[in-house]
Design brief:
Rossmann fold; 40% helix
């Protein structure tokens, strides 16, 4: 049975988090779609709130902490990525953008990406199209046609014409995402082990003999 490696990147700040909840729903729906086709998924959830300090340090030092390095490598090695962010000021969160700024520009080339977002009202849903989709297009990813936005009312217990559509949108996006997932990425070069030269050795190399 083919197993697809999925990186699930969620930028929710709270706990519990509507952003994480949406990421979990999309991951579960993708798993069902793959199972229906005789495939399975191996998701790795990356909670950016737990990496916030490491991300900030990497931006100013250029050196990732081990946990952040593992997260970056997991995204680069994944067969597909589910990326979910809260919407602040009509765009993705700064934490979300900072993480993807750390990826190699070619890390997501050809990788299927399912984009999703959460926000207080449905008025923020355009952030998916004017912010998130261009970001992943710039990274040369293959972005799933259906993007999923969940407003606060979508999590209500009383279904109406709007809230009742969230499960259907999740299932549609998951089906499109599963259809794009390859058996693997044979054309991607093998990752080379990173060599870290101690700072003392770097200084010694600069000193004249």
């Amino acid at each position: 049975m083919t197993t697809h490696r999925l990186a699930v990147v969620t930028a929710g700040l709270g706990r519990p988090s509507a952003t994480r909840l949406l990421a979990d729903r999309l991951t579960e729906a993708t798993g069902r779609q793959l199972a229906d086709g005789g495939r399975e998924s191996a998701p790795m959830v990356i909670e950016l709130r737990e990496l916030a300090t490491d991300i900030a340090a990497h931006l100013v030092t250029g050196f990732p902490a081990p946990a952040l390095r593992d997260a970056i490598e997991a995204v680069g090695d994944a067969d597909g990525v589910i990326a979910v962010t809260p919407v602040f000021a009509a765009s993705y969160s700064g934490l979300f953008k900072s993480f993807f700024d750390l990826l190699d520009p070619d890390a997501l080339t050809g990788t299927p990406v399912l984009i999703a977002a959460t926000g207080g009202t449905a008025r923020h849903s355009l952030a998916l199209e004017h912010a998130m989709r261009p970001l992943f297009a710039y990274l040369h990813a293959t972005v799933v046609p259906t993007a999923v936005f969940a407003a606060a009312e979508d999590w209500g217990t009383g279904a109406d014409a709007r809230t009742a559509t969230l499960p259907a949108r999740i299932d549609r996006a998951a089906a499109e995402f599963a259809a794009l997932l390859p058996a693997g990425r044979p054309g991607r070069p093998t990752r080379q082990a990173e060599t870290v030269v101690p700072f003392a050795e770097q200084l010694a190399a600069l000193r004249p003999d």
